[in-house]
Design a protein that fits this description.
It is built from 11 helices and 12 strands. The chain has about 290 residues and is of the alpha/beta class. The chain folds into 2 domains: about 10-145 and about 245-285, D-Maltodextrin-Binding Protein, domain 2 (3-Layer(aba) Sandwich); about 145-235, D-Maltodextrin-Binding Protein, domain 2 (3-Layer(aba) Sandwich). Helix 3 packs across helix 10 and helix 3 (about 85-95) packs antiparallel against helix 11. The N and C termini lie far apart (about 45 Å).
């Protein structure tokens, strides 16, 4: 049963190399030491949940697949790390609960949760009706957003319909991003490509003026070697119901509301204190390569 987004092998390799190079940066560095960036809010904080008396869990067993960058992967020394790992470790410290991380092959995560091997899947399950029959989900701790990348030497300065009118925008054919782009940027000339590699190369070589897609995938490409420094991300992200099935959530066995509430409460704490944003700046392609003086 497929239950997460599909990342090309080439892109996954680029992500791992990007993270290994960054692994020397302390996970919970002081805020003054972190680069500044415009980070989207990832959660709606539930004020009512903060007032509830919740069940105490002495231990939480998280199920993880270690080949899921940028969320869970291994460093060169074999240590589990990634955005989801950072969030989980911070959550466990805040809740004062012992957490274990149990590695399970990717396609066996749902079955492991169903059979009680662990208490929660840390990251990966899609928000689909099929999965909802077997799992309960936390609110997202990372949102699936759309974004634009453009050429550095181009004339596009903002992601608006007026700025994009008549411009050539690349997108991967048959994706939710292509459908959203057709509905919302109908005055642009939309060029569809068979896969991300072809679409990105069209932007790099100037055959299109902009490229629309998942903000994380685009960000890694822009900052990676494949782009050859051609391009940058336009400010702003586009949330949409079309993309929400791919939000990053934790999943528990259906009916385990007590654990879901605990996870949601402490995710709310991390978000309210800005620590989810710090994790994003540590592990995701935002804020890390901001040019001097900008």
């Amino acid at each position: 049963m497929p239950f997460t987004f599909q990342m090309s092998k080439v892109l996954a390799t680029c992500v791992v190399l990007w993270f290994l190079a960054a692994s020397a940066v302390p996970l919970l560095a002081a805020e003054k030491d972190m680069p500044t960036a415009d980070i989207p809010r990832f959660r709606h904080v539930d004020a009512g949940l903060a007032a509830m008396t919740l069940k105490r869990f002495p231990r939480i067993r998280f199920l993880v697949a270690s080949d899921f960058p940028p969320f869970v992967y291994r460093t060169g020394r074999g240590r589990l790390t990634g955005y989801a790992m950072g969030v989980a470790n911070a959550l466990c410290a805040e809740a004062r609960v012992k957490c274990d991380f149990i590695e399970v092959p990717w396609d066996r995560l749902p079955g492991a949760l169903r059979n009680g091997v662990g208490d929660a899947i840390l990251a990966g399950p899609r928000l689909t009706a099929e999965n909802a029959e077997a799992m309960d989900f936390t609110r997202p701790y990372l949102r699936a957003l759309g974004a634009f990348a453009v050429r550095r030497k181009g004339l596009i300065r903002e992601a608006t319909g007026r700025a994009m009118a008549g411009r050539r925008i690349g997108v991967v054919k048959g994706t939710v991003h292509a459908a959203w782009l057709r509905r919302n940027f109908g005055q642009s000339r939309i060029h569809q490509y068979g896969d991300f590699r072809k679409a990105a190369e069209a932007l790099r070589t100037g055959r299109v003026d902009a490229l629309f897609g998942d903000w994380i995938q685009l960000g890694f490409w822009v900052q990676g070697s494949a782009s050859k420094g051609c391009c940058h991300m336009l400010p702003g992200w586009f949330p949409a119901r079309d993309f929400s099935w791919n939000d990053t959530v934790m999943a528990v066995k259906r009916g385990n509301r007590a654990l879901r509430r605990v996870l949601d409460r402490y995710l709310d704490v991390l978000d309210s204190e800005g620590r989810l944003a710090l994790m994003a700046m540590r592990f995701l392609p935002v804020g890390r390569k901001k040019e001097k003086g900008k």
